[in-house]
Amino acid sequence: MNAIKIIRVAEGKNSTLSHLYIGGLFCCYLLEDSIREEKIQGLTCIPEGEYGLSLNPWAGMNARYGPKYPKLHEGMVEITEIPNYQLVFIHIGNYHTQTAGCPLTGSYWQRLDGDYQVLHSAAAYKYMYPLLVEEIRRGNARVVVENRF
């Protein structure tokens, strides 16, 4: 059984709402771009599949997250091994316009004008981050992404 799963549960006009499970338990909501057959750079969520997870301490986002979360941050949680994608991080944000292909964390969600948003993103990130870091350190560095709608 895979310890980490992203289960997509709903689609908006330009957004996809997911649940993140760690160790079989619901952790937080995730917001992604639309599901598309053909990738449009920065506007398409990652395809279904199984991928690697790692801590990326060198990407540009570390410059913001390191000082903002000095006791928490050890590198961006990166989803790796995705064909035709690179630098896909689980990070803070509220709207599909902020994803650029990355999953955004949320404590709860709402639907507005046909699209989903996630809210209280920083709180969800601070809860999720150490759990994912622990799983990566234990060798559970795989995530399964499934569409379930």
From TrEMBL:
Residues 5-132 form the DUF5675 domain. It comes from the Bacteria. Pfam families: DUF5675. This is DUF5675 domain-containing protein.
